[in-house]
Write a structure and sequence with these properties.
Blueprint lengths: L1 H110 L1
Length: about 110
């Protein structure tokens, strides 16, 4: 019986040693997993930061595109105004030419 208790005790001791070794290995693996999770969290934060920068840049580009569109519209309006002024100027030149012709005819009549 004592021998049986000693054998059981030795088996139990071996089993406890294996359990302690497994627990140590489990602790090591958990530390590695924890490190990997930390690395993933850092990479996730980096991706999140990059996404935020891209979104901000896209928003800024949208504002710039709106400004360009507004400027192009203003150029179109000013171009229409210039065209109107050119037409008015052409009409005024035609009137001045007609008046000049009339004055020339009058001066010719006075000379005769």
């Amino acid at each position: 019986m004592i021998e049986s208790l000693q054998k059981n005790s030795q088996s139990l001791t071996k089993l406890m040693d294996v359990t302690v070794a497994n627990a140590g290995e489990g602790q090591t693996l958990m530390a590695e997993v924890n490190t990997e999770i930390g690395d993933l969290a850092d990479k996730n934060q980096s991706i999140s930061d990059s996404s935020l920068q891209i979104a901000t840049a896209a928003e800024e580009q949208g504002v710039v595109a709106d400004n360009i569109a507004a400027s192009v519209e203003e150029i179109r309006v000013q171009s229409d105004n210039v065209c109107g002024l050119i037409s008015a100027t052409n009409n005024n030149i035609d009137q001045l030419r007609a008046q000049s012709d009339q004055m020339e005819a009058m001066l010719t009549g006075l000379k005769a």
